[in-house]
Amino acid sequence: MTDQLKHLRKPIAATSQMKKLMAAHFLELDEAQKTGRQKIAWCTSVGPAELLHAMGFLVYYPENHGALLGATRMATEVIPLANAVGYSPDICSYLTADVGSYLKGLTPLTKAYGIQSVPKADILVYNTNQCRDVQDWFSFYAREWNVPIIGIHTHRNIGKVEDFHVTDIVLQMKAMIPVLEAVSGAKFDIDRLREVVDLSLQCTRLWRRVLECGAAIPAPLTFFDATIHMAPAVVLRGKPEAVEYYKLLISELEDRIRLKEGAVKNERHRLYWDGMPVWGKLRELSDQFYQLKTNVVASTYCNSWIFDAFDPKTPFESMARAYTELFIVRDESFKESYMDNWIKNFSIDGVIFHDAKTCPNNSNDRYSMPQRMAKRLSIPTLVIHGDLNDLRCYSEEQTRTNIEAFVEQLDQKVP
Ligand code: SF4
């Protein structure tokens, strides 16, 4: 069936350009590591990447490597190695997969790009806006390689982002500059930072437009497409290539909207996905929804790379605001009103919450949100239990059955 579906679903033509960009990104890092020509900073997904680019670093994002380990299912093979040295199976499976892959000397970059190992960091830079695990994750490599580790400690579970939150983060970022100068050998230049923030702003605005294409009926892309096409927004923000790429992708998606060409043929239901993807089961889930004529048209996860606040006129303040306005940083009331808006604007008729065993930070079902949402919006919700990377926590059969039953419930609502 999967092969038939591959033929039924029209592939996104821009994908080949995206693959080239990703290859160039990893090969540039590999080359820099081999020649020592440019310093490498590791950065968490919403760490201060703009500052690192402005200081002349090449920036590497281990969470992206974590997702690759999940998508290739290598994660399940290597996680036990991290467990064996004391990293619990209950903590972030990006962390355990990444550390396990390092311990085993395996990476999906070898098959994809002929690269033997992930690039070694000259400095590790985290932001705890998403979770504490990133600090522990980077600390493993700081000990392993004896390289500096610095970080931003973000206020969490907040409603409104207040000026004092922003001021605090600005001060923390400015305090990083002398350390970054010492490692990179470059002097900080505010004009260069403004340029990078401007590029990040352009990228994020285009990425928002890509995702907003999902509001069209039928939607020209699915959540599963977006998890793939978000890669440039994740690893190339602050670089012109990402901006060019999203212009290309948007033009293709807008053509599909004009032609009323849905990503799912005869789209009948439209869902919102909250929580992490199940990286090792993207294909299976995508195929199942396709067969059920159901499109997952919006998600919290892919929206996490929309940073409306960037402003090159106030680079530090706007970066601090952008990194703190993130969904994952906010309290339940903010999250609920945020999701309500997307649910209304995207004509959503059901919501799936993925409870990822090893990521409580991105599992929003644990404090009764689905029940409150179902009541408030009169919308069906479903919680599926699984994980981003550790497939030992995921039952394919049970998930399939639950999704089927959920869509049957939606069918009954269709006049
Ligand atoms: S937010 Fe979740 S998936 Fe991301 S690094 Fe933290 S624990 Fe891991």
**Strand pairing plus helix content: what structural class?**
alpha/beta
**Largest beta-sheet characterization:** 4 strands, parallel
**Uncertain regions: pLDDT < 50 for 5+ in a row?**
1-5
Share of helix, binned: 40-55%
Residue fraction in strands: 5-15%
Outline, from the CA principal axes? globular
Count of domain modules: 1
Ligands bound, unique: iron/sulfur cluster
- What count of helical segments does DSSP give? 19
Number of strands: 8
Strand arrangement in the largest pleated sheet: 2-1-3-4
Structure description:
This protein is of the alpha/beta class. Helix content is 55%, strand content 10%. The strands form two sheets. A four-stranded parallel beta sheet has the order 2-1-3-4, with helices on both faces. A four-stranded parallel beta sheet has the order 6-5-7-8, sandwiched between helices. It is globular. The relative contact order is 0.13. Mean pLDDT is 96; it is low at 1-5. It binds iron/sulfur cluster (SF4).
Quick structural summary:
By secondary structure, the chain is an alpha/beta fold.
Write the layout of secondary structure elements.
Layout: H1 2-8, H2 15-35, E1 40-43, H3 49-54, E2 58-60, H4 62-71, H5 74-84, H6 93-104, H7 108-113, E3 123-127, H8 133-145, E4 149-152, H9 163-184, H10 190-212, H11 223-229, H12 231-235, H13 240-258, E5 269-274, H14 282-291, E6 294-299, H15 300-303, H16 315-324, H17 332-345, E7 350-356, H18 369-377, E8 381-386, H19 396-413
Parallel strand pairs: 1-2, 1-3, 3-4, 5-6, 5-7, 7-8
Helix pairs in contact: 2-13, 4-6, 5-6, 9-16, 10-13
The structure holds iron/sulfur cluster.
